[in-house]
Task: inverse folding
């Protein structure tokens, strides 16, 4: 996020001409306000998630009413806080990239897509941590069946919200609304557009509707990889599709893409491993 915010005009194409004569953007496009709310929102959500993990751990070792209720209260708060923060991220980094273009259901669509991806990544995490044999307290394999059912349900819901974004194209076909879709589907991003639809809907749906597949951890994890990759391509398509075609390139076709991706994955893996060790969820390999 800091890299995107630091890039300024390169990330937000509307910023370069925000103060030109005759241009009147709304207060939401004030760049200082944008940077402040994104950084403060991230810090607030990170702190809230940290408390959630802490209180969950305490609720497992302390049976008192106070500990149980404290964890319940923060668990109830998490969905509302995340939806609010997720809506802000959706508007700042995707929807308002083209000033004046908006979708009433975009925040819900973005939130659902992110939650769909979370289920996939969590399933992948469970699969490899389960097979590693490092868990101090293992879990039953039927958990993968639960995750498969959840992913199937969220695949269907994501597909519904996905198509709501195109209702304005199919019904109104207003030029000021069509240009965003044309940028994604007609100006070089057609293959990516069809790819993420296949990875996030077609493959998961036709695989997980069969009972046998929902009881096979390996197949479930393969579907999870499909959803996670599809989400990444989906986000790239929505964002890059809002920029003039001379400024974009296909993902992972530059050294910068590769370095940043590896750095982010490496930092995430280090943070997760440290957290698991800290709370005694896995055994140290040392």
Result:
């Amino acid at each position: 996020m800091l890299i995107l915010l630091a890039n300024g005009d390169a990330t937000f194409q509307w910023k370069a001409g925000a103060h030109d004569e005759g241009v009147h953007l709304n207060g939401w496009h004030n760049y200082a306000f944008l940077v402040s709310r994104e950084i403060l929102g991230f810090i607030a959500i990170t702190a809230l998630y940290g408390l959630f993990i802490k209180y969950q751990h305490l609720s497992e070792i302390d049976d008192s009413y106070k500990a149980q209720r404290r964890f319940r209260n923060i668990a109830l708060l998490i969905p509302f806080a995340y939806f609010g923060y997720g809506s802000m991220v959706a508007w700042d980094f995707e929807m308002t990239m083209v000033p004046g273009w908006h979708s009433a259901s975009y925040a819900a669509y973005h939130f659902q897509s992110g939650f769909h991806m979370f289920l996939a990544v969590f399933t992948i995490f469970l699969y490899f941590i389960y097979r590693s044999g490092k868990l101090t307290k293992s879990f039953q394999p039927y958990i993968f069946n639960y995750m498969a059912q959840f992913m199937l349900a969220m695949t269907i819901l994501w597909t519904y919200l996905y198509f709501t974004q195109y209702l304005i194209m199919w019904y109104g076909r207003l030029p000021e609304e069509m240009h965003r879709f044309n940028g994604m589907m007609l100006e070089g991003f057609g293959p990516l557009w069809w790819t993420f639809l296949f990875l996030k809907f077609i493959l998961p749906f036709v695989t997980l509707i069969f009972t046998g597949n929902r009881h096979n951890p390996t197949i479930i994890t393969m579907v999870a990889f499909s959803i996670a990759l599809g989400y990444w391509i989906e986000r790239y398509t929505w964002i890059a599709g809002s920029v003039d075609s001379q400024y974009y390139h296909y993902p992972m076709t530059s050294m910068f893409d590769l370095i940043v991706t590896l750095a982010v994955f490496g930092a995430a893996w280090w943070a997760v491993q440290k957290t698991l060790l800290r709370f005694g969820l896995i055994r140290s390999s040392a």
Remarks:
- The chain has a mean pLDDT of 87.
- The chain has two domains: 1-93, 103-251.
